[in-house]
């Protein structure tokens, strides 16, 4: 009889009915096993409040740990989002090394491990999500946990050289080797992770491709994440949503949807749209870019800077190109209801995903799922988004090349129907193959079989 599933993630849904692809997939997996989901509480800790608070219980339990304001600053904004996030997204210039960041990051992981250790049985499966919890398995092992522990990294695996930016670079491989399975988004990420182990004298490669690291064995595989494809397509088709979008969106609509993050390549996207406007014939149909980008992590300086930069570019371009009855860039700073978003995707003739680095990028998949297959729009997709590995029939662009992106926008608008249909069908197939339910079940079944825990396989 297999044990329960225990999930650890930074965010945890607090409402009764979780929504959003990843959340629903995890929720479904947990319901099947009567497990436990643990994440950070949105409210700061009160005095002495360092345990787990139950926030929901039906067929499984959701519990949250509280962060003090100091922990939030040093662990979440600090080590997670001012060291690991820029490091993994190729922005080592933005990495801020502060001793207190690393100390607090390790202390929070140690505390979460202590809160969890007694609740994990030997036959349970533990699924840890993302860069907030890299050392968690190591801490759990120190407390005697022998259950299988898997890790999924939602963001890019950093290149080997970038790891030297960390205060203690050797820890990274040691942290990962305490898991039984390390899941990554793409084959490229897997190659970089294996390169890290290959260059580490403490690691040995086994015949079956697993890595022996000191007294542990870890498997490294890619599990490209996706969306709830059919549910999202249905949302986009809903006639009431289409009717609700009655406002004039311009003759040609390009859409962009991102958290306001420097990794998403937004300034270059705006500049490319400006270059496209510069080049268009005076009698060409008017085109608008609708950019939905709610700010995040605004207490980190780099996030405030990107917001200011974008507002300047949008203001300049609108000043240069607007007419009395037309504003070419509409820039919305808040989150949009998912049903409205699905309707907007369906209405847009093109979608711009221009990340400079991105683990996967679910917006690319949502846009494709939302299209009318008979008359689909065109996805313009950065080569540096994980999604580009399998969505090769999108219009792939280099997000550093403004001219190439401007040309891609014109190509998308001029593309013959037959070509649009063929490209869309190929992209949709890729989206279906990575549906989020498949992603979750593939990860968990691999975790249960990837390496017999504590086994020592034959050496090569
Ligand atoms: P994110 O960096 O958050 O995720 P992404 O994959 O694009 O990036 O997911 C964003 C999600 O938020 C999408 O579902 C999108 O619809 C939604 N969203 C964004 N802006 C919104 C808005 N204004 N209103 C409503 N919804 C909005 C991280 C990694 C990615 C990886 C995912 C999942 O950085 O590379 O794909 O995790 O693993």
From TrEMBL:
Keywords, alphabetical: Transferase
An MF annotation (GO) of this entry: alpha,alpha-trehalose-phosphate synthase (UDP-forming) activity
UniProt-listed GO biological process terms: trehalose biosynthetic process
Source organism superkingdom: Bacteria
A Pfam family this chain is assigned to: Glyco_transf_20
Protein family according to the UniProt entry: Belongs to the glycosyltransferase 20 family.
Designated name of the protein: Glycosyl transferase family 20
């Amino acid at each position: 009889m297999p044990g329960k599933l225990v999930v650890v993630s930074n965010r945890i849904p607090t409402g009764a009915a979780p929504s959003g692809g990843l959340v629903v997939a995890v929720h479904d997996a947990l319901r099947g096993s009567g497990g436990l989901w643990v994440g950070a509480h949105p409210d700061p800790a009160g005095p002495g409040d360092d345990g787990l608070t139950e926030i929901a219980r039906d067929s499984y339990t959701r519990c949250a740990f509280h962060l003090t304001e100091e922990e939030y600053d040093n662990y979440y904004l600090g080590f997670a989002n001012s060291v690991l996030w820029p490091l993994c997204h190729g922005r080592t210039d933005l990495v801020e090394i502060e001793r207190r960041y690393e100390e607090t990051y390790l202390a929070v992981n140690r505390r979460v491990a202590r809160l969890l250790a007694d609740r994990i049985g030997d036959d349970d499966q533990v699924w840890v999500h993302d860069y907030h919890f890299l050392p968690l398995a190591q801490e759990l092992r120190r407390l005697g946990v022998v259950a299988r522990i898997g890790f999924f990294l939602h963001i890019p695996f950093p290149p080997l050289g970038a790891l030297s930016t960390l205060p203690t670079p050797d820890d990274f491989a040691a942290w990962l080797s305490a898991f039984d399975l390390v899941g990554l988004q793409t084959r490229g990420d897997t190659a970089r992770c294996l390169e890290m182990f290959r260059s580490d004298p403490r690691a040995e490669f086994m015949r079956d491709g697993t890595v022996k690291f000191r007294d542990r064995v870890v498997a490294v595989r890619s599990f490209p994440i996706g969306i709830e494809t059919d549910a999202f397509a249905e949302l986009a088709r809903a006639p009431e949503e289409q009717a609700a979008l009655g406002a004039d969106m311009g003759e040609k609509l390009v859409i962009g949807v991102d958290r306001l993050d420097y990794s998403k390549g937004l300034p270059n996207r705006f500049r490319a749209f400006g270059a496209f406007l510069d080049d268009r014939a005076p009698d060409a149909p008017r085109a608008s870019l609708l950019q939905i980008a709610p700010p995040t992590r605004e207490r980190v300086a780099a996030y405030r800077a990107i917001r200011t930069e974008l507002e300047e570019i949008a203001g300049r371009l609108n000043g240069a190109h607007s007419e009395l009855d037309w504003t070419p860039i509409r820039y919305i700073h808040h989150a949009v209801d998912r049903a409205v978003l699905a309707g907007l995707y369906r209405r847009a003739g093109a979608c711009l995903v221009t990340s400079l680095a991105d683990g996967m990028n679910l917006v690319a998949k949502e846009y494709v799922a939302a299209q009318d297959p008979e008359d689909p729009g065109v996805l313009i997709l950065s080569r540096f988004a994980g999604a580009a590995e399998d969505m090769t029939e999108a219009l792939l662009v280099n997000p550093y090349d403004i001219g190439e992106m401007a040309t891609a926008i014109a190509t998308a608008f001029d593309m013959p129907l037959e070509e649009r249909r063929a490209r869309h069908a190929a992209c949709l197939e890729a989206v279906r193959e990575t549906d989020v339910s498949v992603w979750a079940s593939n990860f968990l079944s691999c975790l249960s079989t990837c390496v017999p825990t504590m086994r020592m396989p034959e050496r090569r």
